[in-house]
## 1
Amino acid sequence: MPAIYPDSVLMIFCKAPIPGQVKTRLQPALNAEQAAAAHRQLTYMTLERAFQQPLCAVELHCAPDAGHSFFQDCARRYPLTLKGQYGADLGERMHHAFADALGRYRHALLMGCDCPSLSSDDLLRALAVLHKGHDAVIAPADDGGYVLIGLNETQPRLFSDMSWGHDQVMATTRSRANEMGLNLYELDSQWDVDTYSDWLRYSAM
């Protein structure tokens, strides 16, 4: 089935599910192995959403690289492309991903792999917003960050000198976009799985 937006790409950032290195805030309620299993489960959930509709090309951006067996399994299960993440911090990695993607596509979305509230229809709406001429689209998170961002052009200032993980990330991004004169569209606020209470909320869905 042809993609709804063949000139667009959805980039999903994901870490290799190495025990002790992912979803550490779910510990000690979950042990390291269980937290890594939770990470794998959330990633598969995200990929299911990404392919629920034939939206656009999908890329899984892997850290530390695409060689882990989990990423290879994802590529066998889903028609996606594996990419590496490059940069010293999250902001650099995000900017690099957009710079690369927007050299190949007209529109690009970037999201993480742990947001159960972000639906396939939300992704469709985000792509539609970019096509209608908004410079950027973003899905705020209840914790003060954001879970998705989309751009038509690279905007390095949105990603530089940012205290990632801080509860002012969305507010700072919104302020910078305003100062830059960007026409920013905000989706409904979302929640992601950071803490054990978030995991319980997801598990009850």
## 2
Amino acid sequence: MATKRVPQKLIAADSTIADVVGALDKPVEYVRRVLEKLERCKRAHGDAQVRLGVRGRSECPNYLIEYVRENAKTHERVIHQDAAYSGSTHRELAPRHIEEARNWSPEEMNITAVSALIGRLRNPNAPSLRFSDED
């Protein structure tokens, strides 16, 4: 008798890590590993952001690390892909994965937002900083 596969939870096409964190297998570890890749990219390029892979498994989606540079002549912000990573192993994926635009959410999270997210995951009962100035 064939075993039934558990149907995959779909990832919304415009998801960020913050949107899917509840579905991740190991949210703190996943976000920590993403943050490591973001920090490496920021050291190399001065900037870093992450887009989520939206066609994979919601428990450990792949992710794309990018950085933004301003074009010196036009002053336009240009996004450059750094590398794509497997969400389960956190190893770099082949460049062909990056090229398929529909694999990636159009929404990104910058390194500051991912740092804040891991802080909330590690200390969920901490008071939110958002409301600290409303006394």
## 3
Amino acid sequence: MTGYFGSYVVVAVLLGVGVAIFAGGLLVNRLLRPDRPTAEKLTTYECGVDPVGEGWAQSQIRYYVFTYLYVVFAVDAVFLFPWATVFADAGFGLTTLVEMFVFLAFIALGILYAWRKRVLAWT
């Protein structure tokens, strides 16, 4: 296979082989597995609790807000570790210190805003 479209043919053949292996595995699994459905096996499993009622449940928005705050602090921690390693290098001390205080000031402003909006109150 030479030429411009030769490499596309190789990719297409490899893609076809991959799809055939995947489909063949699923087909062999379907042919060899035991198939004895019962009413108990076909019920929905909810963490060991029998499903009762409708499938819709209301959750409070504060859970999402706490999740976003966790993500902010996780990103903060991700940036703090590399900063600590660069801070020790020669020539980066004052510059990285000022940059990190600016970054932490933005984080502190976000926390202050969340505190003033009473987002952090768990009531």
